[in-house]
Amino acid sequence: MDVLKTQEGLAALSRIAAGFSEVGAGLDDLVGIASRSLRAEEKPDERAGVDQEREVRLLWGRIGPDNKRFLYDIAREFRPGDVFTLEEVADQLGISKGSARARMMNLGRTVKALAGDAPVLWDVQWDSEDGENSYEWDFDTHRAILKVVEG
Fold first, then answer.
1. How far apart are CA 113 and CA 131, in angstroms?
2. Confidence (pTM)
3. Where are the domains of the chain?
4. How far apart are CA 59 and CA 114, in angstroms?
5. pLDDT by 10-residue block (mean), the chain, 151 residues
6. Among 2.70.70.10, 1.10.10.10, 3.20.20.80, 3.30.465.60, what is the CATH number of 49-150?
7. Do 95 and 147 touch, CB atoms closer than 8 A?
8. Is 50 helix (H, G, I), strand (E, B) or coil?
9. Confidence at residue 106, expressed as pLDDT on a 0 to 100 scale
């Protein structure tokens, strides 16, 4: 392909690549819109019969006091419907973003170990623009955490 050996050919190839990048970003946007739309259409009884308090108590039995406090503090600072990031968690709780990330990872490992008995803590969305996750509480689990801690 001799055209690639010219400046014009390379410039054209660069424009094509930029176009694909724009298409990719547009597809990411569409996936986000579809995901939000599906979440909005989900029925509140999708997990009907699941005892979130039981699941939260099982989680509570496997995490230490600092992670319990961390999770409870997030529940107090962010309500269902609030979308939040690790940076916002760190700011609200007065800890470093690295510490917030480490605690989230610890919680994730524990939830994974509990498998089907684990509570669904939140919906997680990847923001390709900001390059980080955002979180939104599961309504019933949020309520269960507050009830387990506050009685």
1. 27
2. 0.66
3. 1-41, 49-150
4. 8
5. 74 74 55 49 54 93 96 96 94 96 94 91 88 92 94 87
6. 1.10.10.10
7. no
8. coil
9. 94
Amino acid at the residue 16? I
Decide: residue 53, CB within 10 A, 0-12 exposed, 13-18 middle, 19+ buried: middle
Q: Return the structure tokens found at 150.
A: 């506050």
Which amino acid, residue 117?
A: D
Provide the mean pLDDT of the chain: 83
Measured CA to CA, the distance from residue 75 to residue 38 in angstroms comes to 24
Tokens matching residue 50: 């699941």
Is the separation of the CB atoms in 91 and 99 below 8 Å? no
**Amino acid sitting at position 35:** S
